[in-house]
């Protein structure tokens, strides 16, 4: 669930606006539309898109009456892909959120952005082919800046692309409706509907890993904000003129309290570089002073940011995910105490650890795909 990429991992071979992946004007519609993109071969496995779609639509496909009067196939599956800077988590997932098949594969950033895009689209096709007649749609989530309304991945530093119309490319290749969204906001959706946020009404999700990102959901729906960037709590300034952040600002939460920065700051203090944040958490429990100091600084910064979020949006709960959340009570307990200490006229929202872990993005992509399938069923 990385975002913005790790330092030094940025690649310089982007897709550009004038490239063959440039977005046709017709794509200024939701992701169901399919472009006449010349890069996509008209035939896959010797079949056109229409022929492939027909192959997945046998006459004896079981149907049932669904709420709202639409007709939906029974036992159908969506393909879901969560694309990270290191690996892709993908699966075939049924309507109740059960993972029927799962695969993890290296993203392969070392092969360049074109190969990464081809790998993502190819994996989507593999999943759909595996599902056969049961395939109903495809959901994808990727890091970086995403225009979910048009299904276009605008920019991802660590994956090196610019303006890739993933939803259209996957839809064209598979013959199925496809939807694209931001990875963390997709994880937010899953935690809100089927994870730690269930029953909370509203929740603010914070993913603390290589970077720090977040998102807000109410009643099972994510609010992406006007520019699709709502919830970027990692770039809230918690130390004015503090350490530089990848975003260009200084003193952002991410520059102080992300797992990677905890490791870096511990190395600067002790001379022991390369110690993981997970190991540092163990050293905190063991009572090592340097680890305790770095950890406390991170907790302070996180509490400042959560206090600001509490005052501004009053969430029913915070859900803490990402790699650092694996520290469990070593993170959650002091953070909850520090948060409560910063709030004067109100109580603090509870802090819950993620229940979906690193599957949250994939499951959220599946939920978005089901939303798209359902909306298409209602329209048709
Ligand atoms: Zn920043």
Write up what this structure looks like:
- The protein has 380 residues and is α/β, with parallel strands linked by helices.
- The chain has two domains: 25-182 and 365-379, 2-Layer Sandwich (Nucleotidyltransferase, domain 5), CATH 3.30.420.40; 196-355, ATPase, nucleotide binding domain (Nucleotidyltransferase, domain 5), CATH 3.30.420.
- It has helices spanning 49-55, 113-131, 166-174, 183-194, 254-257, 259-270, 277-286, 289-313, 329-342, 360-379; strands at 43-44, 47-48, 63-65, 71-73, 77-83, 87-94, 99-106, 135-142, 145-147, 152-156, 161-164, 178-182, 202-208, 212-218, 221-223, 317-321, 351-353.
- Strands 7-6-5-8-12 form a five-stranded mixed sheet, with helices on both faces.
- A hairpin with a 3-residue loop joins β5 and β6 (87-94).
- α2 (113-131) crosses α3, α4 (183-194) packs across α10 and α7 crosses α8.
- The radius of gyration is 21 Å and the shape is globular.
- Mean pLDDT is 84; it is low at 1-45 and 53-72.
- The site of zinc ion (ZN) has 6 residues, from loops.
Q: Helix and strand layout, with pairings?
A:
Elements: E1 43-44, E2 47-48, H1 49-55, E3 63-65, E4 71-73, E5 77-83, E6 87-94, E7 99-106, H2 113-131, E8 135-142, E9 145-147, E10 152-156, E11 161-164, H3 166-174, E12 178-182, H4 183-194, E13 202-208, E14 212-218, E15 221-223, H5 254-257, H6 259-270, H7 277-286, H8 289-313, E16 317-321, H9 329-342, E17 351-353, H10 360-379
Parallel strand pairs: 5-8, 8-12, 13-16, 16-17
Antiparallel strand pairs: 1-2, 3-4, 5-6, 6-7, 9-10, 10-11, 13-14, 14-15
The structure holds zinc ion.
